[in-house]
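Regression test case RT-17, inverse folding.

Input:
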């Protein structure tokens, strides 16, 4: 079996030295007639060099011939031990064997291979999330001595990345975005991404954005219908709000973070959305009350939202208390409207429970002050965020007991 080529070990390197990763490797090569290369390559596929980013055929110094490169653990004396079919092909077609050398350098090795060669650990921190031109890493403390080197390697090995950042342990407690440190590249935190048919532009150092949530964004957006009213309580820069408005829903979108609010409005313009979206910069509880009031003011009959989206998993459940008695002053209108419906709530949250649905429903019921119907509610597993920590979305319809509570 061919052995993967690996770069020279450079344990102790803290400042990247690309010259240290030069290496000459050699393998057994079989000289054959150039016209027979295609057929031989097919018949000998399991015995070829088959190394990533290297060709299995090289030029020969003799006319009308080529060198077929064989797996690098094979020696000329091993040819006699190959299966008879292989051996007969080789004996029939080859014009001789020789050792073929290749000079490999920093440009050949992958980021993961370079980091394995430098960092004496089983796992290497080569993974990142890409947000536009930014590579966003979340380095463990054990890798901090190499963080600038890691950033430079990621930058070198990815043509579309011009900035590499690491999430620090500090988090803005009011606006819930992580502070960043630049590991390599230019100091440009204005990212542009495409998602759900929309373009988003924002300062990644001042707002929250997680590209891994695009599937969850799409899942909920697909539930929303044209002309339905959507209330996005923690809208960020608009990953739920903008695509929903673009498909014809009427969206009331809010974020407490002034930077998120600024970029939300900028993205409305960027996507040329001229109607069907109303933006706010309020605390979540204030916004829920204000949005319900503003929407009801547009009609003398019962009118409210079809869906509330609460995508702030660390604390969204705590805001459910706002729905306790939220509509008590509108009960007469509700009762007088034959087709009146109460809204669906989509509340994101984290859980570490071995019974996640029970845990989430119990917590949400306690905060909202009334039992959530387990038979009709849905606890959807969004993603794993850490060992024994899952992100869920609890979807349930507000009940009259919750909405019209008097105390």
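Golden output:
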């Amino acid at each position: 079996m061919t052995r993967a080529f690996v770069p020279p070990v450079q344990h102790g390197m803290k400042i990247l030295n690309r010259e240290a990763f030069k290496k000459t490797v050699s393998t057994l090569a079989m000289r054959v007639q150039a016209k027979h290369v295609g057929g031989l390559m097919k018949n000998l596929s399991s015995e070829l060099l088959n190394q990533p980013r290297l060709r299995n055929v090289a030029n020969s110094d003799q006319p009308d011939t080529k060198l077929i490169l064989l797996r690098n653990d094979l020696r000329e004396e091993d040819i006699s031990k190959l299966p008879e079919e292989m051996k007969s092909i080789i004996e029939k077609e080859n014009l001789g064997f020789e050792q073929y050398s290749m000079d490999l350098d920093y440009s050949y090795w992958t980021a993961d291979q370079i980091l394995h060669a430098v960092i004496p650990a089983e796992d290497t921190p080569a993974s990142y999330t890409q947000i536009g031109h930014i590579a966003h890493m979340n380095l463990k403390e054990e890798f901090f001595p190499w963080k600038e080197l890691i950033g430079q390697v990621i930058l070198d090995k990815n043509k579309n990345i011009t900035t590499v950042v690491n999430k620090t342990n500090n988090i803005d407690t009011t606006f819930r975005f992580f502070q960043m440190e630049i590991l390599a590249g230019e100091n440009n935190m204005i990212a542009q991404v495409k998602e759900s048919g929309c373009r988003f532009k924002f300062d990644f150092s001042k707002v929250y954005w997680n590209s891994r949530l695009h599937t969850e964004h799409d899942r909920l957006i697909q539930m929303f219908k044209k002309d339905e009213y959507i209330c996005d309580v923690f809208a960020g820069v608009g990953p739920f709000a903008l695509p929903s408005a673009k498909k014809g829903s009427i969206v009331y979108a809010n974020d407490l973070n002034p930077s998120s609010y600024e970029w939300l409005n900028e993205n409305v313009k960027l996507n040329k959305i001229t109607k069907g979206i109303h933006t706010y910069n309020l605390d979540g509880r204030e916004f829920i009350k204000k949005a319900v009031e503003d929407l009801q003011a547009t009609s003398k009959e019962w009118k409210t939202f079809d869906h509330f989206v609460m995508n702030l998993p660390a604390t969204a459940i705590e805001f459910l208390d706002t729905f306790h008695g939220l509509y008590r002053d509108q009960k007469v209108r509700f009762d007088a409207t034959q087709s009146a419906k109460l809204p669906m709530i989509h509340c994101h949250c984290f859980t570490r429970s071995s019974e996640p649905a029970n845990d989430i429903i119990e917590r949400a019921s306690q905060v909202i002050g009334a039992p959530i119907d387990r038979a009709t509610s849905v606890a959807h597993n969004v993603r794993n965020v850490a060992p024994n920590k899952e992100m869920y979305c609890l979807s349930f319809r507000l009940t009259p007991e919750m909405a019209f509570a008097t105390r």
